[in-house]
Amino acid sequence: MALESASLLKAGLVLWMAAQVFPTASGCNRGYYERAINDFCLAKFKLDMGGLDRGLYCSWTDTMEIYEGLTNCTYQVALRMDCFWPNQIVDRFFMNIHRIYFHDCAVTGRLLQEPPNSILAPFIGVPVLVTLIMTALVVWRSKRTEGVL
């Protein structure tokens, strides 16, 4: 039993080492995949972003369609080349995109702006109104001394 267990351990170790050394069986050529997303996807993204004013790079409404196109492009190339998606190449690719194009943007990816008045008014009006009503109630109650010991 111990000999059988040791041979299974050795076989498992050999298989694990082979999986680390030999390329994956998925058929994905990582070098070609990286070159393809740079040639096809990045070229189109650069062209689209070049047509956009640099001040609008952080505006999600202006860049959303371009960014979705880039994401979809990397996905479609991965499908055609039999690569997993997302993968480390795509992660590095998008990290470089963010480092180059979106490094000055807020974490949320949106330009900071004031909320519309329809949102802002209730958040200001309701506390003011409650304060006034409570003040009036306290004053009115303090003038009525009947029944108070």
Condensed summary:
It is built from five helices and no strands.
Would you write up a description of this structure?
There is one protein chain. The chain is mainly α. The termini are far apart. It contains 5 helices and no strands.
What spatial form do the alpha-carbon principal axes imply?
elongated
Please report the number of helical segments.
5
Mean pLDDT: 82
Fraction of residues in H or I helices = 55-70%
Q: Structural class, please?
A: mainly alpha
Q: What is the CA–CA distance across the termini?
A: 91 Å
Percent strand equals under 5%
Oligomer category: single chain
Give the key terms.
149 residues, mainly alpha, elongated
Strand and helix layout:
Layout: H1 2-21, H2 30-50, H3 60-80, H4 88-101, H5 117-143
Helix pairs in contact: 2-3
